[in-house]
Amino acid sequence: MSAASLLETPLHAWHQAQHARLVDFAGWSMPVQYTSIVEEHQAVRNAVGLFDISHMGRLAFSGPDALSWLEAATTNQVSRLAVNQIQYSLMANGGGGVVDDILVYRLAEGYAVVCNASNRTAVVTELERIAHPGNAALVDQTLETAMIAIQGPRALETVQKVFDGDLAQLKYYHLAMGRLMGRVDTVLSRTGYTGETGFEVIVPAAEAEAVWNALLDAGKPAGIVPCGLGARDTLRFEAGMPLYGHELSETTNPYAAGLGWVVKLKKGEFVGRDALTSFKANPELSRVGLRLEGKRIARQGSLVRLEGRDAGLVTSGTFSPTLQKSLAMALVEPSAAQLGTKVSIDVRGKDEAAEVVELPFYSRTDGR
Amino acid sequence: MDPTRLRFAPSHEWVNLEGDVATIGISRFAVDQLTDLIVIELPAAGTTLKAGKSFGEVESVKAVSDLYAPVSGEVIEVNEAVTNDVQLLAQDPYEVGWLLKVKVSDPAEVQNLLDHDAYQKKVAEEAH
Predict the structure, then answer these.
(1) Which of A120, A196, A229, B113 is 20 to 30 A from B28 in CA distance terms?
(2) Could you report the per-residue pLDDT of B15-34, keeping only the tens digit for each?
(3) DSSP labels, B63-90
(4) Does A368 score more than 70 pLDDT?
(5) What pTM, to 2 d.p., does this model score?
(6) B36 touches chain A (CB under 8 A)
(7) Integer distance in angstroms from the first to the last C-alpha of chain B?
(8) CATH number, position A348
(9) Are residues A153 and A234 in the same domain?
């Protein structure tokens, strides 16, 4: 690994000082774990965890035609957003596949998009490709800002100690502009990728370490734990959330991925609409949850078989720390998609018995 | 088992040879690198091992790793306690966490393995 060519977040020195295990993720040097993926995972389910997610792309849109530009580029209906509201959305390609899954923020003035690190270049290229006659501008703010997620049942009390607005009033998928530690301007949102109550803050890169340390201090009584991308993956997996490059790709349509609710075919013209209209009638595949009988993990690319014939592929698999089962998500033919269907999965040459189960594997019982 | 008296393969398996029977396990360093162990697959008694070839796998949340035979021979005993509960391996890879007992076909193979000091040196380099 040529570490020199990797991008580093403003928290990189902190991760190194903590002896985090750093890996190349989408061109960034990122912590995959500080101690144990399972311990970090449990901290988020039971208390609160802190994640550096500064590798995510952050794009700012301004100008009177930003709305129509985003409407043409995304599948969800941007015009439905109220000020300070956030929407999960997709950018589709002309064939009805997915360029990226994104969050669209409506700010008091303008919009912002948070996209996957691995797709930041593709997203910007695609936005610039979309013919746009009007008056709107896009600025990539990824490198000048940092993004930190605070997730878990004790996230609210932790963040409240350093934020000047009332978080109890902030609804899921809404944002608040405010200050951290009385001085750092932030966009704070009630969003996350873990299936728990949680917040994400965007702050200037130069303030990242001060904010990170203030959050660690504030969360100390709650047992806050810094968490790497390993736990972020197992947490999102249990919560049944798709990950680009796994459940989503240039050749996977949103209906197959279980994201038909994010596609608003009636909103007007947008990239991929014709192809998506066809996929709505026939998604061809279906994203399912699978529970294996044994403990071995069925990782991405493992073949799913129904009565001896190939019926699909595993997109993600892990051993669920919360449920203590080997679980997988897969894209399978409709014939193998019914709950309770018994299938087998080829795990490195050996068949493992599995059953189609409901997604998400894990959901909180007390709201978000 | 005192780790300073063991021999180690560069692929992190250890060997303790008594007569022509070798006890085989994996090192503390390997276990710490793996973290979050889920399951281990070991061969049945009677299986023939060939030095340098894979004889099983250990799986963690992060990844699956092959286990490589440090010596050749026939498996005469498998530590079923570890296959039933791989956390024993995480607790103590040199005592309760041993993996196999093997009747070695060529005891001289053990001399080709690293002694504790040489292994520690290799591990220190790898950690950087």
Answers:
(1) A229
(2) 999 999 999 999 999 999 99
(3) -EEEEE-SS-EEEEEE-HHHHH-THHHH
(4) no
(5) 0.95
(6) yes
(7) 28
(8) 2.40.30.110
(9) yes
